[in-house]
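Worked problem 6 (solution included).
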Amino acid sequence: MEVDILEFGVPVDSNKTVFVWDIPPVLTHDQVYEQLFHIFSSFGPIYLLKVSPNAPLHPPGFYAIIKFYSAAHAATAQKVTDGCPLLQNSALKVTSCSSG
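Solution. The predicted structure is:
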């Protein structure tokens, strides 16, 4: 059994953050939030989940920023979910935010 010891302070490292985009507008903002929380919290404790509408010049839909307490949880979430049909069978794009 592998054990992670987490510090429950404000995560400041960018490698603890994932960015999700191409979220279709078939769900409401609240539905997107709830479903993303359910999906991504299964990888580990989440510090922040923010869902926002796309900018006016982009197609309708949403994007989300998800900040984990653990970089390992963020990396696993990104690898497992990128390109998967998670919301209404739409393949989402999920990337890690990394410093550099």
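Discussion: The chain has one domain: 14-97.
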